[in-house]
Amino acid sequence: MLLIYCPYCEEERSELEFRHGGDAHIARPTNIADISDAEFEDYFFLRDNPKGLIFERWRHIHGCGRFFNAARDTVSDKFYMSYKAGEPKPYIPGVSPASEKPLSENVGETYEATEGTAK
Amino acid sequence: MSGANRIAGQGRLTPARTARFTFDGKTFDALEGDTVASALLANGVHLVGRSFKYHRPRGILSAGPEEPNALVDVSRDAARRQPNVRAPVQEVFDGMKVESQNRFPSLAFDIGGINNLMSPFFAAGFYYKTFMWPKAAWEKLYEPFIRKAAGLGVAPTEEDPDHYASRYAYCDVLVAGAGVAGLSAALAAAEAGARVILVDEQPEVGGALHYDLSVKIDGQNGYDWAQATAAKLKAMENVTVLTRTTAFGYYNHNFVGLVERVTDHLARPDRKLPRERLWQVRAKRVILATGSIERHMVFANNDRPGIMLASAARTYLNHFGVAVGRKVGVYTANDSAYEAAFDLKRAGVTVAAIVDNREKPGEGVLAEARKLGIEVLAGHSVVDTKGKLRVSSMSVARNGGGSARSIPIDALLMSAGWTPSVHLFSQSRGKVAYDAATGRFLPGTYAQDCLSVGSCNGTDGLQATIEEGLAAGELMARATGHEGGGKVELSGENAFEWTGGMAGSGEGAGVDTTVKAFVDFQNDVCAKDIRLAVREGMHSIEHIKRFTTNGMATDQGKLSNIHGLAIASEVLNREIPKIGLTTFRAPYTPVTFGALISHSRGDLFDPARKTPMHAWEEAHGAVFEDVGNWKRAWYYPRSGETMHDAVNRECRTVRSAAGVFDASTLGKIEVVGPDAAEFMNLMYTNGWDTLKPGRCRYGIMLREDGFIYDDGVVGRLSEDRFHVTTTTGGAPRVMHHMEDYLQTEFPHLKVWLTSTTEQWAVIAVQGPKAREILEPLVEGIDMSNEAFPHMSVREGKFCGVPTRLFRMSFTGEAGYEVNVPADYGEAVWEAIWARAEPLGACAYGTETMHVLRAEKGYIIVGQDTDGTVTPYDASLAWAVSKKKTDFVGIRGLKRPDLVKEGRKQLVGLLTKDPKVVLEEGAQIVADPNEPKPMTMLGHVTSSYWSENCGRSIAMALVAGGQARMGQTLYVPMPDRTIAVEVSDMVFVDKEGGRLNG
Amino acid sequence: MRKYSVFAVAREAMRGHKGWEPQWASPEPRKEYDVIIVGGGGHGLGAAYYLAKEHGITNVAVIEKGWLGGGNTGRNTTIIRSNYLYDESMDIYEHSLKLWEGLSQDLNYNVMYSPRGVMMLSHNVHDKQSFQRHVHANRLHGIDNEWLTPQQAKDYCPPLDISATARYPINGAALQRRGGTARHDAVAWGYARAASDRGVHIIQNCEVKGIRRGPDGAVTGVETSKGFIGARKIAVSASGHNSVIMAMADVKLPLHSVPLQALVSEPMKPIFPCVVMSNSVHAYISQSDKGELVIGAGTDQYNSYSQTGGLQIITHTLDAICELFPMFRRVKMMRQWGGITDNTPDRSAIQGVTPVQNLFVNCGWGTGGFKATPGSAHLFAHLIAKGEPHKLASGLTLDRFRTGRLIDEAAAAAVAH
Q: Which of C83, C94, C110 is most worth mutating to test chain B (most B CB atoms within 10 A of its CB)?
């Protein structure tokens, strides 16, 4: 059973309180009525299903009720960090592809940074 | 007398405290604290079971949970019977009944023993190569035979009367194992102030100190130190010490499952106590001090009763005061077994010889053996044993050949070395690493916040173990923010440092393929079977395991895995780590289902949801049906009525007078906020801008892929407030679906969602007399048709309490749904009933509701739709706004397959014979004579006897259904074919005039 | 290949079983193959076998990252049935079931297909409607599946609690008598042996690291831990890892991989005669020939490649098992494990061509792929050989997610075990 950090409640809670919500950072097209069949397939069905780093949605359904995002490793099931819905996809040092490294030094906060303990 | 083999002055049990039990019907005396194994051994009983495949006589091999042979059936009474209990683990209680397993007719004479004679035929994997002819014989003949022969114990046949408990716990440091390492770690962590949970599977802490009398810690006898330390820990507020508790599973994120055996050792347990308790512990840090397990030697006929692990014999002597034999032999590849010989010798037992397959045993133990006058045959092996139901002699030969010498013995103690228990470490997804120097798999790369200490970490030597434990305890306490207390120091001394050890088959296992040198005792896997598997191309250890079943018995390879690996390595001429290691899986030892489910049974299995009116319904004879978690009144049979009678009466009554129906289970969501209408526009296919406050609309909700997800009537209470209803089963997922879009896709909308399902009790009153029934109870609402037309909602008072009164109908009659705060539901229902009954109305249940709505062609999402139906398929095109540029599902609906011709559409069906009621789920064809596989056009989704129509009616999904109006189709049943005509779906009051009452 | 028979076993028994040969060869890879199948599970090995047997294509390699049958083939609860709802599903599962019925003889390897009956319990009106829909659809399709009363269900499976006081009383059951179980490892080994005998190369411990494509975009081979191996066609059948492999050719699939858990009890004497499934309370149970109760649990909710999952998934399933069979509360769990299942949005498999030329995929079997093994393998072989799907698998193509022609067994039956 996972231990999940809710960025709204600002604490770790048991997986029993959460519901997984699929991949994160897949925005519903604002012009959805006008997109092609292929674009709709891509938006609604096709997924990276990565082995390794995944950005995924969770909802603290039996807690604050909020949706948020998390970066996790699908092999070790370890979380790198959780962050609020709407925040940009964070750069996970040493894990994210170098091409995604932001120009500024203002990288996403990790668990280590927020929790102050080595995970 | 508690057994002839109990040696006065030995062991820690109290001679005066006896308990009596039976084994295979014979009564034996035991001492309190005995295990079944120690008690049987005390009474000279070695033969306790039969093996899985060959039904070979088997004795007690170990003194712990790794026991593969001595599995027995233990019962307290008929319903409290437990198969496959490990005799060395189960404590004796007065009155317990123990039976041996897997034998017929008796343990000493077992017909299944014929398998042993047939064993050349039953080589590993033989069943893959035969039993294929004739084809049907596998299932009818061979398989039943194999199943009956296998299987060990007999499953319980009565419901378990015991109860189980469950507890969630949190701690800073969980320490698994309370031997020297674990106690040291727990002590250091506890002194530093960490919240500590220390668990051990045995009844007392101490681990190896149970048998190792030579250990002294801080000048105290080791075992006594352990008990004193445990007592000290127990007295600390921040420490929980759990004995008889197994850490059985190490899951994600430091979640560890423990099972505590609470009453199985008690003669007369308090019935209030659970039998076992499941602990689900989330630990910030875990310290694994799980010790190591002695391996047996692999040689010919190494399985006879009386042959056991050396450390087990030591435990039986030093803890239980039992000598496992009068004249024992020792066969070893490492030093530790010598100490068993020394202890037995000092206790007055004859040690026939120590056979050591090493040329150079450890100096220290050799000298001590000499001093005690024990013959040591170094560079020798035991190459065979004799003895039918108990070992009677061992054949010893010089390594590399030479004649064998037979030495009479009545017990043989063996040790091939020690296997670190890396089970929990490995379950934590840590990677083990092979230490070639010592031939052990040890914790390598850690995956979670844990540390291994002591012999499970490959740490040899007492002082090193103590220091490692203390350091780990301190480190883990610090890591969780505890720095209190002073430095804990302990010093230990013991007699010998152990060296040596081997894995795989020794000289005595022979290369001869008829030799039975057991690797896995319970599953009867011999060295030759491993070799055969390799010969057949099984080169991965997983293949070898699965082909031979090595390591798949109830001990899960605790003794056999390393030997199997070593034999494969030898045959393949490949290093052990290259062959791989099978995966360690939870549980460490088997865990009772009852403990895992704990409270989740009976009423608590899945608690039933009941409406505020449930008690009234029950009192009025309602029969209930399960809808999701809800109990819903299904129908109200009167005396002598069948379900059919009752439903017909209810249906007639609603249309002729009125009916009262509990609709409280419908999901209800309050959608509030300045952007509520815009949000509704996005979530439903309908347009909501035009809906005036006080009016209602039937809404359809789609998934993004265009299929119907849910439906329900929505009332607009004010510009910024909607009262949304959902299907009974759909309420939670609809709420989740709405929250998802609101929070993540449309967060700019100012809307608040609240589930109000359980806030409102809902009483539907339907039928021509509905208004007459309700009117006197209503305050502040003009009930006239003009002021309060169909599909309206009003707020006011009902029986003096606030109400949201809906004018709506799911029956086709004029009707209302009275929403009142749930707490008033029953009282309001009573008040309505008091008016309704004299007016000739009835209470009706869900079945009548279904019939009445079907008579009107109203669909039920989930029954008439199944996740592949669009609003167009369901003749609900009118509910899909053509003006909107966006709503969830708008794009999905346009996909090629969803707009193509010939899709399945909802239509009505009328059987040619009006008396015939179709079966729901029945399939529809155009050509009843088409050979199978037939072309199925669709299926019957709803079908009822309609008392009001005087005939059967049905709804169906039919390919191209709208274009088939009036066509005759067929429903082929097993016994006949039913002709049907496609019709529209409205069977009663097609004009809808009754709605306006 | 030396034929297996009772006589062969007897002959070997006389000489200490020294004469058995390796069941399959372990050759070094060739430079190039006509077909490379990625994934040495039942589906992949079977496809190789049928390519050789039915299409005469023997220059084939099956490449397996670990050990044969080590994925979901070797870690499922071995339920076999064909009583699915939609034509597309019935076609393929019934095709499969028919192959199961003769598989031991065809392969000369006892896969222990045991048609002891698969019974699906109905607990409420909705279940009954759904199961009867299946029963009728199956019957008209020519598939056996019958409706039982609660008493008939109990007669077929005596441990079943059919009391009306149960939390979710049983109101009937659908029984497919030809359904049952088989020995999962034997399926992989039997196919491997038979395929190897026909010249197929089986290459274990060889991980695919990349898919190489030519200037025209068509595949040319795979990069592996044993170097580059050329291939004219590549067929991917890697269950939980399908997305990972296909990503190497830039093909994105509608899949998510989640752990499905299962457990066995300690072995006991025969007590449980058939397979019982309950979608409503979520429980799947049978008893193996060794005597263990084999219990299928649910999936964890999150994507994972870890082959483990949470304890709560196991306990939830045991809740249901003990509710249906209260006498099992004293039985003990001996081992639990997980497998990585690749799941599609409509819970039906995908088998077909891909946007990349000469790259074929067999994926999305989710939680129910074992039963499909022979049928899927057989039809996959056809696809690889002919370049287009067999009639019986024509509904399983990838384009359905674009057109909307879904085969929604999930909507019809909750879980596709």
A: C110
